[in-house]
Amino acid sequence: GMAVSAWRSQILKDSERVITEFVNLYLNIGKANKELQALARPISEELEHARL
């Protein structure tokens, strides 16, 4: 009855929070990945020129 529905809503709240944190983590990783690529591009271009 009462306890079960309270327990169920708590589980929903917890899993919602976990999903939200995973999404934020995923977005942060994507953002960091773009920043790393932006940093790496000029370095790799310089290496290309140095090789020529």
What are the salient characteristics of this protein?
rod-shaped, mainly alpha, 1 helix, 52 residues, single chain
Can you summarize this structure?
The longest helix is centred in the middle third of the chain and has 50 residues, at 2-51. The chain has 52 residues and is an all-alpha fold.
Give a written overview of the molecule.
The protein has a domain at 19-52. The protein is 96% helix and 0% strand. The protein contains one helix and no strands. It has one helix at residues 2-51. The longest helix is centred in the middle third of the chain and has 50 residues, at 2-51. The protein starts with a helix and ends with a helix. The mean pLDDT is 93.
Question: Based on CA inertia axes, which overall geometry fits?
Answer: rod-shaped
Note the total helix count.
Answer: 1
The tally of beta strands, per DSSP, is 0
N-to-C series of helices and strands: H
Mean pLDDT over the full residue set: 93
The gyration radius over C-alpha positions equals: 22 Å
Unreliable residue runs: none
Fraction in beta strands: under 5%
Blueprint (SSEs and pairs):
Blueprint: H1 2-51
